């Protein structure tokens, strides 16, 4: 590394929740693409770091971590093409706010608007909704600095390997910018059901997760009768006033004028059926507030929607083993896509999310219990969260895994962007 770059190194720190501490030699924060190019070309090992919202070692390296947060901001709206190109370190909240007065919108958002666009797309972050694919599918072009320091732009229509370029776990280089497809802006209302029973959920799973544009079921694994509550985010132009939770044995959350809706945290986006812009309702948390709990560990597995009810029954059968460690759980539907490493590749999916107490040893004891229960349903773990499935099991559920490995060897023959995670999970050797 050149003398011009070395002073920029600092301690790499830890992930957002503190459950994983990076082992890299240091952290660099280049302030220009040219500086980033020089750094990457000179370093034998490099990995990009986003908003640190992963919970495992997916972003780590034995070399240098590079934050793209300080690269010059970009917000290039192309109204004719219906796209916007943004800098990789931009958060979804920042992009959404930039679109607020343009009449355009992102097709969906994740639960947190605080996460970086490039990091979220690289790991397969998603929102919810039967008709909504994960966030990576909105990327129509990606700009990446390769191991040779060259900046390259890959576009969906021109690159036959594009399906392996975006959701790529950092294997091809350091992303500097992405181009996102846009849709016409829309308004959303957010309502909550309480007291949904387990029998009603399991017997009507498809109807419940399809009851709004975006639906999140918050199951209570330790309760043998009551499954919990349901968050429904409905486009106001498709709101069905006849929708009645009583048909599923549930009830509307109580809402009192001037008060938060029943059960609502002040940091969460507005509930109680109050219409608002898409970007102020689709995330669970406000961009100006602290997201979630923080002191936690997260896990998520994706199963085929055709198997979803049976998978939930299998988890209920062993719930007494893991429920005491669960802080919150969430079930979300995700539409199928064709990205090579997407957890929803080729199948309509249900994401089964578990937020654990930050007790690493205990969580590591129960993860095999959860995974054994889900094994008959070919679970695909979220790339950025905790799991103990071995690499062979993970790779066997991805039909394009071998294609991705070949693309990674082609794009990074010197293996500059490899790390222990890619070797362990995807079989991409470091040496």
UniProtKB/TrEMBL annotation:
One Pfam family per UniProt: ALO
Transmembrane segments: none
Stretches of the chain forming a coiled coil according to its record: none
SUPFAM superfamilies per the UniProt record, alphabetical: FAD-binding/transporter-associated domain-like
Domain FAD-binding PCMH-type: 20-185
InterPro entries the UniProt entry points to: ALO_C, FAD-bd_PCMH, FAD-bd_PCMH-like_sf, FAD-bd_PCMH_sub1, FAD-bd_PCMH_sub2, FAD_lactone_oxidase-like, Oxid_FAD_bind_N, Vanillyl_alc_oxidase_C-sub2
PROSITE patterns the UniProt entry points to: FAD_PCMH (PS51387)
Keywords recorded for this protein, A-Z: Oxidoreductase
Protein name, UniProt field: FAD-binding protein
Lineage: Bacteria, Bacillati, Actinomycetota, Actinomycetes, Micrococcales
């Amino acid at each position: 590394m050149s003398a011009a770059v070395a002073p920029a190194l600092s301690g790499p720190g830890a992930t957002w929740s503190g459950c994983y501490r990076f082992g890299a030699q240091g952290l660099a924060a280049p302030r220009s693409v040219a500086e980033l190019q020089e750094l990457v070309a000179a370093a034998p090992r490099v990995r990009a770091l986003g908003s640190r919202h992963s919970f495992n070692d997916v972003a780590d390296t034995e070399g240098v971590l590079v934050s793209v947060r300080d690269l010059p901001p970009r917000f290039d709206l192309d109204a004719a093409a219906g796209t916007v190109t943004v800098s990789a370190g931009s958060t979804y909240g920042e992009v959404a706010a930039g679109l607020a007065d343009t009449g355009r919108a992102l097709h969906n958002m994740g639960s947190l608007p605080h996460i970086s666009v490039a990091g979220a797309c690289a790991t397969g972050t998603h929102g919810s909704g039967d008709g909504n694919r994960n966030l990576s599918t909105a990327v129509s072009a990606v700009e990446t600095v390769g191991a040779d320091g060259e900046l390259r732009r890959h576009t969906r229509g021109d690159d036959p390997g594009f399906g392996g370029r975006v959701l790529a776990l950092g294997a091809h280089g350091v992303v500097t910018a992405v181009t996102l497809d846009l849709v016409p802006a829309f308004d959303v209302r957010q309502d909550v059901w309480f007291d949904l029973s387990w029998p009603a959920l399991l017997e009507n799973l498809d109807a419940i997760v399809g009851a709004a544009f975006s639906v999140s079921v918050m199951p209570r694994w330790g309760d043998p009768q009551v499954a919990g509550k349901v968050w429904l985010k409905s486009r106001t132009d498709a709101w069905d006033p006849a929708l009645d939770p009583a048909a599923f044995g549930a009830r509307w959350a109580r809402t009192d004028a001037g008060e938060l809706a029943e059960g609502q945290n002040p940091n969460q986006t507005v509930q109680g059926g109050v219409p608002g812009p898409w970007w102020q309702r689709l995330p669970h948390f406000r961009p100006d507030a602290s997201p979630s709990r923080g002191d936690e560990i997260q896990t998520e597995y994706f199963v085929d929607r055709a198997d979803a009810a049976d998978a939930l029954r299998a988890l209920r059968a062993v719930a007494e083993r893991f429920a005491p460690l669960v802080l919150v759980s969430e079930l979300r539907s995700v539409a199928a896509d064709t990205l090579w490493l997407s957890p929803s590749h080729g199948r309509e999916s249900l994401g089964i999310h578990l937020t654990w107490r930050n007790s690493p040893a205990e969580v590591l004891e129960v993860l095999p219990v959860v995974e054994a229960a889900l094994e008959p349903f070919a679970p695909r773990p979220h790339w950025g969260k905790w799991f103990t499935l071995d690499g062979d099991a993970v790779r066997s559920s991805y039909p394009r895994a071998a294609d991705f490995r070949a693309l990674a060897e082609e794009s990074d023959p010197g293996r500059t962007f490899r790390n222990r995670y890619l070797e362990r999970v995807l079989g991409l050797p470091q040496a």
